[in-house]
Amino acid sequence: MLTLSLPSSTSAIRPSPKTTFTSSKSSFNGLRISHLLPTPTLRATTARQSVVMMAKREEELKEIRTKSTEEINDEIVDLKGELFMLRLQRSARNEFKSSEFRRMRKRVARMLTVKREREIDDGIGKRQSRKLDRQWRKSIVPRPPPSLIKLQEEEAAEEAKESASA
Questions:
Q1: Which of 2, 135, 143, 146 has its CA at a distance of 20 to 30 angstroms from the CA of residue 41?
Q2: Residue 89 CB coordination number (10 Å)
Q3: What 3-state DSSP class applies to 101?
């Protein structure tokens, strides 16, 4: 906490022991007062949560590394389609889980990281990698994301049930 005492006869400022004054060479004609703040301490629950998060992340990376590059590419396309569907739901003001955005983006980033690690192991440089990535993006055949396919199948099943009962 900052405390300043002003004597009635003079205009001197006496800082408290926790306050430091620094002068600066700028157009500001005053004193800059910087406080000495205590360092934040980590709570025990935060440390436990981070350990759990790290374990999940490592487990997911192991799972991704077991897949072939083609499987990773297919899953990247699917996840990007899912992200597109989430953006559509958000723009239409439908209900959706906002946490899915971050989860999917992180999963795509992990997959791209594993893909790049494999390229580095094969001796492919950054420039060649970008060239291959552009070619791969051009070769992608647009397809509906898995959630949309599932939704269409459910609607078709409902229509078949209604037509069978009618």
A1: 2
A2: 15
A3: helix
Residue 44 C-beta-side C-alpha neighbours within 13 Å: 0
Report the distance separating Cα 160 and Cα 166, nearest Å: 10
Q: How far apart are CA 71 and CA 75, in angstroms?
A: 6
Domain extent, residue 78, equals 54-145
**Cα pseudo-dihedral 148, 150, 156, 160, rounded to 10:** -170
State the pLDDT at residue 94.
85
Establish if 138 belongs to a structural domain.
yes
Q: Does 73 reside within a domain?
A: yes
Whether residue 116 lies inside any domain: the answer is yes
pLDDT at site 18: 52
Say if residue 40's pLDDT is above 70.
Answer: no
Please tell me the total count of domains within the chain.
1
Lowest-confidence segment of 4-13, 74-83, 126-135, 143-152 by average pLDDT: 4-13
Supply the pLDDT for residue 112.
93
Whether residue 46 is contained in a domain is answered as: no
Q: What angle do CA 78, 81, 83 make, to 5 degrees?
A: 115
How far apart CA 56 and CA 52 sit, in angstroms, is: 6
